[in-house]
Write a structure and sequence with these properties.
It is a single chain. This protein is mainly beta. The protein has two helices and nine strands; from the N terminus they run αββαβββββββ.
Length: 158
């Protein structure tokens, strides 16, 4: 019931504005992309090309319902301020690793997450506050040994 009410308002607003799709002159923007590096000292431990989830809607959708994720791909979640909020794997089809980093871009925690189709789904929470997180295929973060204290660098692609 709650989901229906949330979806009705945008549909009603769209219909009230006189249409069901955006005009051809205003294409839907592409997802922002970035190169993400994890380093320990001067050694690069991991390189990923990530989609950036900046808005609450992007973060809520995350990687849900995607059947695959490229080998060196992922999704970075950026927040306006430090948070402690948990992540869930509800309706996520592929196993993932997640790394959380703080405001100084240092990894705080790394976890393995498993898909979940039915409630109650486990919640995955960092051991400390974080400013951003990255999800990648299971093993992409844990196999190279990404750990607390490693540095994250995120460079937006133009």
């Amino acid at each position: 019931m709650r989901v229906r009410r949330c979806l009705c308002l945008p549909v009603l607003l769209l219909l009230a504005c006189g249409g069901t799709r955006a005009p051809a002159s205003k294409p839907i923007p592409d997802t922002a992309m970035a190169d993400l590096l994890v380093t320990r000292g001067s050694q690069v431990i991991l390189r990923l090309v990530v989609e950036i989830a900046e808005t609450p809607a992007d973060r809520a959708q995350g990687l849900m319902a995607r059947p695959t994720l490229g080998r060196d791909k992922g999704m970075a979640f950026l927040f306006d301020s430090e948070t402690t909020g948990p992540f869930t794997m509800k309706n996520t089809l592929i196993p993932l690793d997640i790394a959380f980093w703080d405001r100084s871009l240092l990894v705080v925690d790394v976890k393995m997450m498993t898909p979940c189709e039915q409630d109650p789904c486990p919640l995955y929470q960092s051991s400390g506050t974080f400013f951003g997180a990255v999800e990648a295929n299971a093993g992409a973060l844990t196999t190279p040994g990404v750990t607390a204290g490693d540095r994250v660098t995120l460079r937006r692609r133009s």
